[in-house]
Amino acid sequence: MSSSARRLPAAALAFALVVGAAVPASAAETADEAAQLAKSAPTVAARSDRVEHYGYGTVPSAQQIAGWSIAVLPDGRGLPPGSGTVDHGADVYAQQCAACHGTFGEGEGRFPKLVSDSKLTGDQPTKTVGNYWPYATTLWDYINRAMPFPAPHSLSADDVYAITAYVLNLANIVPENFVADRESLPKVKMPNRHGFILLDPRPDTADKECMAHCRTPDEVKITSTAEGKDLTPRTAGPLDEMQSP
Amino acid sequence: MELGRRAAGMLLPARDQEATRIVAPNRRSLFKGGLAALGGAMLAPLLARSAQADAASGEFPPGDPDWSQSVGPGVVDRPYGRPSQFVKDVIRRNVPWLTATKESSVSFTPLQHQDGIITANGLFFERYHAGRPTVDPARHRLLIHGMVDRPLLLTMADIRRFPSVSRIHFIECPANGGMEWRAAQLNSLQFTHGMVSCAEWTGVRLSTLLDEVGIKKNARWVLAEGADGAHMDRSLPLEKCLDDCLVVYGQNGEALRPEQGFPLRLIVPGWQGNVNVKWLRRLEIGDQPWFTREETAQYTELMPDGKARAFTWLIYAKSVITFPCPEMPVKGAGVYEIRGFAWSGRGRITHVDVSFDGGINWTRARLQEPVLPKALTRFTAEWRWDGKPALLQSRAVDETGYVQPTIAELRKIRGVNGIYNNNSVQTWQVKADGSVFDVELG
Fold this sequence. Notes:
heterodimer, A: mainly alpha, Cytochrome Bc1 Complex, Chain D, domain 2, two-stranded antiparallel sheet, B: alpha+beta, Sulfite Oxidase, Chain A, domain 2, Immunoglobulin-like, 5-stranded antiparallel beta sheet, 8 helices, globular
């Protein structure tokens, strides 16, 4: 069969190459990439001209908007004032995060690992902040909005900066004296910054609608079966509590 | 006499304890009325005869079962109804070893028991990232802001005033079948395919709300964010938002279930479940995607070369046979109706073919109405089983002409580390004894 590359639409391939090229991260580049990506999202012309208004609801105050505007962009827009050191981050992390993610980000039990030097190829790669995430801003954003898991969105901006610095340091991405703030985080070069293909290359398969003699009987071989694997919780009776497969 | 017979029936020991409990007070109240005139002597022979019939045969017909000789609980006994106690096994189920906690986890719809395209609200699959929040609708707000002319804060009452639409759409988690990339692993339809469900959604077109706030010229993207602890957020192209997205409060004729985002969720028809943000509280209009954790660290597909596909939102055509399946084996040679579901995020299913021999020969299945775009579609086909081992498959084709691929074909291109978007043809191995197993073919 033909290689996967030959099946990708040309535009997607070209774009994948642009994203994949090993050039340094910069705000300009991010903007470039976003412009490319926006092609998958053209606007509908003059949409806002043609509208009647219902007039329901109220106009939110600036303060109301600010309170809920927690999303951070790769260029740093949305990051609040404040800062944090790796050292301080180590303290807060030990109290708030280590129980689940391990003191060094190695992950307790099935809780996510935060750092790993696993390659992203080969058998069962481990994807973590350190080796997979493309933007440090996303780390700040996620810790701020969703962690610590039992009490999401409860940390101060300074503490989130500090923990972000600590996790980035654990992953050997920033030095011990790194100070995270709204200026420094967007500039952090994440190892897998260029690891993503942003335009969906599907359809990437070309199965045919064959109706008869589509394969020979010899070709029909069972290569794996779930029978006897003991991975399946029961599907009748009360809920299954099976823990380890 | 008619009345007497029924009264006697009510005195019979009910099998169902609940019925006994509920019947007892009714009996008392009936006796207060005309029935009190009937003497105990008259009732006794009736009692004996019915009990005899019951005990003697234990089967009906010819006897009358106790539920036919009694009066059941009255109206509003269950002001909010629930399934018969005899279908108690038909429940969402989880795979406990899959995730660290139940609060960041998934449960699966029992598709093997779904008898139509609509998933019962209590069986719709769950996916949480910070558990199921309890949101007070009176205090819930939707904030729309960013690159707009007029930012807006809406209450649920405000949202319900806008022109409303109802649409039937499936939602599928792109990790549905994710455990099957390497090999057949879970011997169950519920666990291999149960992260898809389908409902009728009622709410406001997102375009109506975006028109209301006025989108600025350079806007390209919309961030949708939830009110749960995860503050779940995803970037969506503005074009899709203006096309067919809905902000819904209704699910199959009632308020959204808490599991599905009560009081408000986004519906992004045909796109991966995660972007259908639940407990929706904020829409920010912008010029770039935010590259949130759920669209970088998660919901991205690692390819064999170590690169990862991101923003693969669309659900491509997929189908699965729901009878027979591992949970629903067959019993002996004979004629069976093969049943299943097909769906595509890119429009309508145009046809489904089924194979009984592992994909050598195929037969066209019948599609059952209604056949709706981006909705579960039911298919059936007749199968004359000779009692010999068989390999059952279904293959969907949608209106783009796209043909559902085999797992072998998918693996050739995407390897086995992708986790998401496994829309491959499912193979059920039927053994001579009628038992059914999840297998993969080379």
